[in-house]
Write a structure and sequence with these properties.
The protein has a single domain, classed as Rossmann fold, CATH 3.40.50. It has 5 helices and 8 strands, in the order αβαβααβαβββββ. The protein has a 5-stranded parallel β-sheet, sandwiched between helices. It has a 3-stranded antiparallel β-sheet with strand order 5-6-7, with no helix packed on it. β5 and β6 form a beta hairpin. α3 crosses α4.
């Protein structure tokens, strides 16, 4: 599986949007694969929840939504290894108070560099979801502009 991801990450560099999402059930090994891939390519995954959360905690609640995107861009620039960015624990991006569109945000980062991120939701019937229907953070997306990497 590591070899497949390595090949895909190389191939995706030729695309306009270079986003690979690792998708699988909880406990399927998404984070472990991301870490192993990071070691293989000498890149350190960003724990987005910890890093973005730490920086947002120093900002007043009302201003967080205005600064979250810029802070994430700074984190990406600081932690990218060449043209590769590895992201894990992105659940904070779904926080309704930040008023972000998580997938659109990932896609924008993937225009400038290859991005491999662990998706905290499901891939079902050609759709990416996060949280269950009716949950305030529920999101439902198509697969346009990204490459899903399913982990069984």
């Amino acid at each position: 599986m590591l070899e497949q991801l390595d090949r895909l990450a190389t191939d995706v560099g030729a695309l306009h949007c270079k986003l690979i999402l690792l998708v699988g059930a909880p406990g399927a090994g998404k984070t472990a694969l991301l870490i192993a891939f990071g070691k293989r390519v000498a890149a350190e995954p960003i724990n987005v929840g910890v890093e973005l959360g730490r920086r947002l905690a120093a900002i007043p609640q009302r201003q967080r939504r205005l600064q979250a995107n810029g802070i994430l861009r700074e984190l990406a620039d600081e932690h990218a290894s060449g043209d590769l960015l590895l992201l894990d624990n992105i659940e904070i991006l779904f926080d309704r108070s930040l008023q972000l569109d998580p997938l659109d945000l990932l896609k924008r980062h993937a225009h400038a560099r290859r991005v491999v991120a662990v998706w905290p939701g499901e891939l079902r019937d050609g759709r990416l979801t996060y949280a269950v229907m009716g949950h305030p953070e529920h999101q439902d997306y198509g697969l346009e502009g990204l490459v899903p990497f399913a982990i069984q």
